[in-house]
Design a protein that fits this description.
single chain; mainly beta; ten-stranded antiparallel β-sheet; five-stranded antiparallel β-sheet; 27 strands; elongated; disordered C terminus
Length: about 425
């Protein structure tokens, strides 16, 4: 999350520094330039990808683990340092965010593929009906001997995983398949649909099935499928409607590779949250911008930005709620314009919660911006959800900085951001 004041420098290099690999032309620029007077410039920069700034406990004595080296459930964030002035410990100056209650801490996660045992269809994790599986059968698309052969004994046979999510969400199932030209096979992410036949081409092809309410992975011979003998590779089930790069989950999900996947703080939608220590009104100012790469994991109402303590009903920004005509920014946060993925939302300085809800599609990463906030009366910024009414699971990277004067282009990676984190 970036929160900065109206000393706004060019933010195009900021996005380059966040989302792209370093290149010579931008190597000299640093996001720290957004705070020209260091800690004296109002704002905050919270960066989950900077693992040295994230701590498992709120006192900053136990470092977090690299996501995927331990189970996500064992990787809480109790302290996130504000790194705009180079803080390395809690006592360094900055608007650090912390959570003293262990059960209410977000988790550090880079998990994309929500399946388990993705390269072993013989594992008991998978429900198998009439399907013979041969591991490491043939040559996969990457040239390795790692394809899995599936031989279905007849019609209405399958490999299946149910209840991947607590409740159906916007999601996508994908897998590489090779089989005889023209034969068909069923691929579904919701078993009540059961009609998405894919047509094989004779060579390797990645197929995807997305649906607004998916919670399962099914490949089989329902709905008149004609294929009986195929090779498959790299199954994936993920939130959002777009199948992104495959993430191998070789065991029960307690370990996985996080390389190339976004690292984020994952909030549970029940009681997870983080807050700064209280500070005097005027520490933040009138004329600030906030930029937050964010992913909603549920369509439930939420604050996808910040709020000034649970009891202060007017000081919030980023409320997303289906079909609501109320403002997404409270009266205690000024009248900013709201942008998602570099597009200004309709409504000018009075964007509704329903408009923001529609723009922040569930399961997809977005760049959420608020330009020209008035935070001059704020004293205790919070993130996360400590009220049931603000309760989707949500993942966010956080960086707060002072706001820039003339709007500059913010451009996610063309390949589908974020392939790196921030």
């Amino acid at each position: 999350m970036l929160l900065q004041s109206l000393l706004r420098p060019v933010l195009t290099p900021l996005m380059r520094g966040m989302f792209d690999a370093p290149i010579a032309s931008s190597a000299a620029w640093s996001p720290l330039a957004l705070w020209p007077d260091g800690i004296a410039t109002p704002g905050m920069w919270i960066s989950p990808r900077d693992l040295t700034s994230q701590w498992a406990d709120y006192t900053g004595t136990t470092p977090v683990a690299t996501p995927g080296t331990v189970a996500d459930s064992a990787n809480p964030v109790g302290l996130a340092l504000d790194i705009r002035a180079g803080a390395t410990v809690l006592t360094d100056p900055g608007n650090h965010m912390l959570q003293s209650t262990s059960a209410a801490r977000p988790l550090l996660s880079a998990r994309v593929n929500l399946l388990q045992y993705t390269e072993d269809f013989t594992n008991g994790y998978w429900l198998n009906s009439g399907t013979t599986v041969t591991l490491n059968y043939g040559t996969a698309p990457d040239g390795s001997q790692t394809s899995q052969r599936l031989v279905f004994s007849g019609a209405d046979k399958y490999l299946l995983k149910l209840s991947i999510l607590p409740s159906p969400q916007q999601s996508a199932a994908s897998i590489y398949v090779k089989g005889p030209v023209g034969e068909t096979l069923l691929l579904e992410n919701n078993i009540s649909q059961g009609s998405n036949l894919i047509t094989l081409t004779g060579g390797w092809q990645r197929f995807s099935r997305n649906y607004a309410a998916g919670d399962a992975f099914l490949i089989g011979t329902y709905a008149g499928s004609t294929a009986r003998d195929v090779e498959v590779w790299h199954p994936q089930f993920q939130l959002g409607l777009t199948a992104t790069d495959y993430q191998p989950i070789l065991t029960d999900g307690s370990s996985y590779s996080s390389t190339g996947f976004p690292i984020a703080q994952k909030y549970d939608g029940v009681d997870d949250g983080m807050a700064t220590a209280a500070f005097a009104a005027g520490t933040l100012i009138d004329g600030m911008d906030c930029l937050i790469p964010v992913r909603r994991d549920s369509a439930a109402s939420c604050v996808a930005g910040l709020y000034n303590g649970v009891a202060d009903a007017t000081k919030f920004f980023g409320m997303a709620e289906s079909a609501s005509g109320s403002g997404c920014v409270g009266s205690g946060a000024g009248t900013p314009t709201v942008w998602v993925d570099n597009t200004q939302l309709t409504g000018g300085t009075a964007v509704t919660r329903g408009t923001l809800h529609t723009a922040l599609t569930v399961g997809d990463w977005h760049i959420l911006e608020f330009r020209n906030l008035d935070l001059s009366t704020w004293t205790l910024p919070d993130s996360g959800f400590t009220q049931a009414t603000f309760s989707p699971a949500l993942e966010a990277t956080s960086c707060c900085t002072p706001a820039p004067p003339a709007p500059k282009t913010r451009t996610p990676r063309d390949s589908g951001w974020p392939t790196t984190t921030e």
